[in-house]
Structures are given as structure tokens and as C-alpha cells.
UniProtKB/TrEMBL annotation:
This is ribonuclease H. Gene3D superfamilies: 3.10.20.370, 3.30.70.270, HIV Type 1 Reverse Transcriptase, subunit A, domain 1, Ribonuclease H-like superfamily/Ribonuclease H. Residues 516-669 form the Integrase catalytic domain. InterPro entries: DNA/RNA_pol_sf (IPR043502), Integrase_cat-core (IPR001584), Retrovirus_Pol_polyprotein (IPR050951), Rev_trsase/Diguanyl_cyclase (IPR043128), RNaseH-like_sf (IPR012337), RNaseH_sf (IPR036397), RT_dom (IPR000477), RT_RNaseH_2 (IPR041577). Its EC number is 3.1.26.4. Signal peptide: none annotated. Keywords: Multifunctional enzyme. It is an enzyme of class 3 (hydrolase).
């Protein structure tokens, strides 16, 4: 039988499709050229498929064969799944067929007005040659896959746990081949070996690794510097094939992928820098000594290490086999543009790495696995399954992890940094220290020649040396001096100018800028406060008087915000001149933009991920939460007490203004229960309305003058305290 294609019982015969008369001569010349090159030959096949003439981009002719009746879909097995089935095997044989595809030439026959031809090479339009071959091999070896052999196209790996069993397995597979008429190439077969080459990998009892024969072509890439997008794609495609052997491949290779723009022509040149060359050589060096990846044992627990950084996600799957930790698989990927914003919240980024490792990269290993352990260098992540303080995204991620049986343990960053090193044998510190001690005792100590004390003049000789830190300024073996470490530390930390010019370790922090308002409702700040469950509080606060209004909501949608501000707050107090908020989508939307435009209200917002820009309302939120915590434990419904708590705040004197928010807005102090208890009268009677207005204007003018003075003083004090902690960097002329 023909192994190259799975021949269907019905002979595929199509009638000849009409070729436009103006193309006849061009098609004849095209066919004659194929005959001259030996790509096609005259045929008497029972099969025939029609041809379709198309034009290339350059105007040339392309002859397409319509092989839709021959083409069919059949999955090619995943190499990783095949290798994972080799656990427990120690004897291997590789059986390889020869010239299998050439036996399908009769099926490629196509009909033209001038006769029937068949292809000698696989033609354009025939897409299922490998899939048909794979299906024929699986039908030939039905019932033997996984347990005895792993067929992949014309290669077949026979594996067994011992030699006697392996003899029986090889005999069984050869009998099947004989029944189906399959011919093997003896020189390409490997029989009864402990280590064989299979699909570009070296397979052994310990695991699989990269084929040593493939290392030389990889090393040759160092000499080639990609000049165009097409050449870079070839290099990345070649390296990505060996991605399983490179830890954090996606993160390391990210700068190379950044050179590939949106779909573009392959001939477009690229700017290849020394940094790109260094990264490519780093990836190639990783393949020079590739690790051995073990076979998973799905009856034993796994160990997962995961980590995240600003560049991407990384994870390593381990399993303890034979008393040592074995690497099963590496995984890494870069961050999407929205995910890069998670770096401001490191806990969320680490949570993303955990979810990705479980649900995407290693789901096939962990979903049905027994209880396993996850190590992370983010301590708060160990409580992620028990905390209630999660947003909707966090709850969704937790629900995805519910199907896995695992335990999260904390391990400091130093212990969790190099996952590849964890797969090696641990260092025995006792024997190591014993060897170091013996080496020290065997050292020859020469007497000090021309011993002399090092004074300040000698210290001046090294004071301008380039030192990395206090502990690495000079070679100590050249000079001996009492209290030398103390003197050098004093010089480096107190005298030397180097530290004044070094880049600070802390991020730069600019001086504080304050916002100054001159009348009530000149600017109103708004923000959402999230409490337990799905309850929210919308806070609306006047920047000048510190007067605040709160609204409980069940959501934080744009419609809810618009309803509370324009249908409640604005009706009670009028439209503010400006509304200030953060960049949440509940505030930055077309609905609020249109309402502000029609009502003549200006808008402003903070910078991204910088809530300090809305500091006044953020400070009120903290105060409000502190006041709510003082409620009795028996008062479970905080919403019924919210109005009382906010009123208490509005009636309390503010240190920033010197008055209560209520007084600054209404011009009088509120009547409180204590006034009724002591029967305190309000001294506000006036003969006429004009007298009241005049008196009110005088009192408020004085109050606003005091507010302006007090607010300016408090702002200056706060700025002075803040600016003491700024971390700027002095730039010199030679730094530019």
C-alpha cells in the first residue's frame, strides 16, 4: 500500500477545468519548464485533479492544483506529549522509513488540455501529506501507541522498561510493519540502545535534551547578524524551536521581538545593535550546554516555582525523582501592554504569574496531579486563597485555581531566583568549609617586608581610585595598616565626592506642588471608596471648605456617578467650577464629559497610578474609614451610621482651615444635641434681612481671610515636611 498518503477507496477524478484561451501558450511554457527541471512527468494515474491559474504579485504565472478532495485533516501528535509518555523507560529503538513520501506520486496527477501529469515533488496546493502519513502510521500501529511505541510520521520510537520486554516490543512493531508492507531504512534505524536520537532530541533513561548534532548549526548563528526583518524571523523561529531548553526565553528575547513591527515586508532593514547581538549570543550560549529535562511521573507530586518581573512571567516545574529534584519543564512569556501596569502592584503581578503557570503553561501536568507545592518569593501571595480583599479580577483568578489541589509556600527571592540551579545537587557546607580550612593552613605566609605604617599621605594615593562601595575600594593585600577598614569607611562615606555623584538607589521624588482655591465649590474632588462585599461610597468634597458629601452605591458605573453628582449634589449646592478625579473609567467617559460640557463645568484628573494628585479626598477617605471603625461591633449595618459619621466630620474644626466645613459653607455653626442638652441659644437674631446679610458678609469675610492665612501656613508646613524626603539627582554638564 501507499504509505505517503492514506488512499481513499474512491478514485479521485475531476474533469478538466477550462483554462482561458489567452493563457494557453503561457501555461504550455510553464508546464514545459517544469518538465525540463524534472519537477513533473507524464502520468497514466487513475487519479486526476484540476488546475487553476493565478497571477503572482510580480505578474508571473502560478499554477495551482485543486487537491481539496485529497486534502483532509488529521492531527499531528505533540512532541511534548510523546516525550512525557516515556517515564519509566530505559531501553529504546528508533525505526525509520525511507522515501515514504515518494510513494504518493500517482495521487498528485493533474489534468490539463494537453495531457495528464504527476508531480515528483510535493506541489503547491497539497496541504495534508504529513497528516495523511501520520494517520496511516497510527492505523498501522493501532493499539501499540504510548505503551510500546511513539510514531511520528516516518519515525517510530519503541521504548521499554527492561531489555527482555524491549525485545518483545520491537518484534511486535516489526510484525505490524510486515503486515502493512512498510519498508525501513536499515542505516537510519537504531536498535536496543540506552540513548537514541529522536526528533532532534537525545532520549535516555534520565530524560531528554537537545541533540548534540544540532549545537554546531546553532553556534554558527553567532557569525550571522540579521539585516532584515525576514532574516530576523528565521533566527527567532530557529531559536524558539529550542525554547524548552532556555529558561525565561520570552523575557530574554523580548528586545529581539520588539524589532519585528506589525506585518511588514521581509526585506525591510532593521537596526541591529550590540545589545541585540549580546542577547542573541546569550540565547545561543544557553543551547551550548542544554539541561536534561525529565519525564513526569503523574502519580507523584510536582513542585512549582513561579516568579514575575516587569519584563515578563517565568515558571519552572520540578519533580523529585531518585532522591533529587528534576526539571520537568520551563515556561516563560512576556507581558501584554495592560499587564505591564500590574508592576505598580507587585502582588497582582505575582498572582498573574501563579494563575498563568496553573491554567495555561502547566495545566496538562497539574490539573489531575496529586497535591503539589508552589514556592513564591511574594509572602502576601500565600494568603491569596483566604483573603476577602480582592477585586473582581482577583476573585475570577481564584475561581480558576479552585480545580487544583496545591499549597503555597513562601521562599525568599535569593532562594527562588535561579530555578535552574535548584535542580542540581545541593552544596554540602560542612565538607566545603573543611576543605577551605585545609587550604588556608597550607598557604605560605611570607614575612612582611619593610614593614611600615600607612599614614594619611599614603591614603591619599588611593583616595581617587575608582571604588564600587565601602567594602571594595583598594586591594588590601598590598597595604597593611591598623584600623584600615575604619579609615577607608570614613573616607568613602564622609569625605569622598564619588557618592555625591552616584545615581541614587531610591527613585527620584519631585518637590510637592500645592493646589490653592479661593472660594467654595471652585473645585470639587470626587473618588470611590470600596468597602467589604460589593458596596461602594462615592465621596464628593469641596476643596476650599473641606465640605464632604457621601453616597452609598452598589456599583461604580459612569451612570451612577452622573446621577449622584448632577441629580443630587448639583441640585443642593449648585454646579462647581471644576471637578477633579483620578483616571478611572467611571470618571473618564463620554457621559460625564458631555454633562460637564453642557453645564459649564471644567474637568481635571490625576496622572496614572498617582492617587497623591487627589490627596485631599484620599485623606478624607482615610479619616472616614477610621471613624467607621469606631462604631460598635453590634452595629453591623454601617450604611445607617454613615450619615451621622460624615456629619460629625463636617461639624468638626479642621486644622487646615481653622473652621468646621459646615461653618465655612453656611456661615453659622450647626445646632448639635449638646446645644439642646444645655439649652444653648443661637445668637443670630437680626431686625431685618439686610442686617443679617451684612452681618453674615462681615463674619464670612473675616473667616475666609483666616482660612486663606491658615491654609497657606499649613500648606507650607506640609510642603516643607514632604520636601525633606525628596530624592533628586544633580546633573552635571558632563552627564549630558
Amino acid at each position: 500500500p501507499i504509505i505517503g498518503f492514506n488512499v481513499i477507496e474512491e478514485v479521485v477524478t475531476w474533469k478538466n477545468m477550462s483554462i482561458p484561451k489567452p493563457l494557453h501558450q503561457e501555461v504550455k511554457e510553464y508546464l514545459q519548464d517544469l518538465l525540463n527541471q524534472g519537477w513533473i512527468v507524464q502520468s497514466r494515474s487513475l487519479y486526476s485533479s484540476p488546475v487553476v491559474c493565478m497571477r503572482k504579485k510580480d505578474g508571473g504565472l502560478r499554477l495551482c492544483c485543486d487537491y481539496r478532495e485529497l486534502n483532509c485533516k488529521h492531527p499531528i501528535p505533540r512532541i511534548r506529549d510523546m516525550l512525557d509518555s516515556l517515564s519509566g523507560s530505559s531501553w529504546f529503538s528508533v525505526l525509520d522509513q525511507g522515501k515514504a513520501y515518494h510513494k504518493g506520486c500517482p495521487l498528485t496527477a493533474f489534468i490539463t488540455p494537453w495531457g495528464l501529469y504527476k508531480w515528483v515533488r510535493i506541489p503547491f496546493g497539497l496541504s495534508s501529506a504529513p497528516t495523511k502519513f501520520q494517520r496511516s502510521m497510527e492505523e498501522c500501529l493501532s493499539g501499540l501507541q504510548d505503551d510500546i511505541c511513539q510514531p511520528y510520521l516516518d519515525d517510530n520510537l519503541v521504548h521499554s522498561s527492561n531489555f527482555e520486554e524491549h525485545m518483545k516490543h520491537v518484534q511486535t512493531v516489526l510484525q505490524r510493519y510486515q503486515q502493512h508492507g512498510v519498508k525501513l531504512t536499515a542505516r537510519k534505524c537504531e536498535l536496543f540502545k540506552r540513548k537514541v536520537r529522536f526528533l532532534g532530541r537525545t532520549v535516555s533513561e534520565e530524560g531528554y535534551t537537545m541533540d548534540p548534532a544540532e549545537i554546531a548549526p546553532v553556534q554558527a548563528l553567532k557569525e550571522k547578524r540579521p539585516a532584515t526583518i525576514g532574516e530576523l524571523r528565521k533566527v527567532l523561529g530557529f531559536l524558539s524551536y529550542y525554547q524548552p531548553y532556555i529558561r525565561d526565553f520570552s523575557r530574554v528575547a523580548r528586545p529581539l521581538y520588539d524589532l519585528l513591527p506589525a506585518p511588514a515586508e521581509a526585506g525591510i532593514p532593521i537596526t541591529w545593535t550590540s545589545n541585540h547581538q549580546r542577547i542573541m549570543e546569550q540565547l545561543i550560549d544557553c543551547l551550548s550546554n542544554p539541561p536534561i529535562l525529565g519525564y513526569p511521573d503523574f502519580t507523584q507530586p510536582f513542585v512549582l516555582h513561579c516568579d514575575a518581573s516587569q519584563e515578563g512571567l517565568g515558571a519552572v516545574l520540578y519533580q523529585r525523582q531518585g532522591g533529587r529534584m528534576v526539571v520537568i519543564a520551563y515556561g516563560s512569556r512576556t507581558l501584554t501592554p495592560p499587564e505591564k501596569n500590574y508592576y505598580m502592584h507587585s502582588g497582582k503581578l505575582e498572582f498573574l504569574a501563579l494563575k498563568w503557570a496553573f491554567c495555561d503553561r502547566f495545566c496538562d501536568y497539574l490539573y489531575y496531579a496529586p497535591s503539589f507545592v508552589v514556592y513564591t518569593d511574594n509572602n502576601p501571595l500565600t494568603y491569596i486563597l483566604t483573603t476577602a480583599k480582592l477585586n473582581a479580577t482577583g476573585h475570577h483568578w481564584v475561581s480558576q485555581l479552585a480545580d487544583f489541589n496545591f499549597m503555597i509556600k513562601y521562599r525568599p527571592g535569593k532562594s527562588n531566583a535561579d530555578a535552574d540551579g535548584l535542580s542540581r545537587m545541593p552544596l554540602h557546607m560542612d565538607s566545603y568549609m573543611r576543605q577551605c580550612t585545609e587550604d588556608i593552613h597550607q598557604m605560605k605566609h611570607e614575612p612582611l617586608q619593610e614593614a611600615r605604617l600607612v599614614n594619611k599621605n599614603a591614603l591619599d594615593l588611593i583616595q581617587d581610585a575608582n571604588h564600587a562601595s565601602t567594602f571594595r575600594p583598594i586591594p588590601r593585600e598590598d597595604i597593611q595598616r591598623a584600623q584600615m577598614q575604619h579609615d577607608v569607611e570614613h573616607y568613602v562615606t564622609r569625605v569622598c565626592e564619588c557618592l555625591k555623584k552616584r545615581k541614587p538607589n531610591k527613585a527620584t521624588r519631585a518637590p510637592l506642588s500645592t493646589i490653592k482655591m479661593t472660594y467654595p465649590f471652585e473645585m470639587v474632588s470626587i473618588d470611590f471608596l470600596h468597602l467589604q462585599g460589593y458596596e461602594y461610597i462615592l465621596v464628593v468634597m469641596d476643596h476650599y471648605t473641606r465640605f464632604a458629601q457621601t453616597y452609598t452605591t452598589t456599583n461604580k458605573s459612569a451612570k451612577t456617578v452622573a446621577d449622584k453628582i448632577f441629580n443630587d449634589f448639583a441640585l443642593k449646592f449648585g454646579f462647581p467650577s471644576k471637578i477633579h478625579h483620578d483616571m478611572g473609567k467611571e470618571f473618564e467617559n463620554q457621559l460625564l464629559a458631555k454633562l460637564k460640557e453642557h453645564s459649564g463645568v471644567l474637568g481635571s484628573h490625576t496622572t496614572l497610578y498617582h492617587p497623591q494628585g487627589n490627596g485631599q479626598v484620599e485623606r478624607f477617605n482615610r479619616t472616614l474609614l477610621a471613624m467607621l471603625r469606631t462604631l460598635d461591633k453590634e452595629t453591623e449595618d454601617w450604611k445607617s451610621s454613615l450619615a451621622k459619621v460624615v456629619r460629625a466630620y463636617k461639624c468638626t474644626r479642621s486644622k487646615a482651615t481653622g473652621f468646621s466645613p459646615f461653618y465655612l459653607l453656611f456661615g453659622q455653626s450647626p445646632r448639635l444635641p449638646i446645644d439642646l442638652l444645655f439649652d444653648l441659644k443661637v445668637d443670630g437674631r437680626r431686625e431685618t434681612h439686610q442686617d443679617y446679610v451684612t452681618d453674615w458678609q462681615n463674619r464670612m469675610s473675616e473667616a475666609y481671610r483666616i482660612v486663606s492665612k491658615t491654609a497657606t501656613k499649613e500648606a507650607a508646613r506640609g510642603k516643607a515636611c514632604y520636601d525633606r524626603r525628596i530624592h533628586g539627582m544633580r546633573i552635571h554638564g558632563y552627564d549630558l
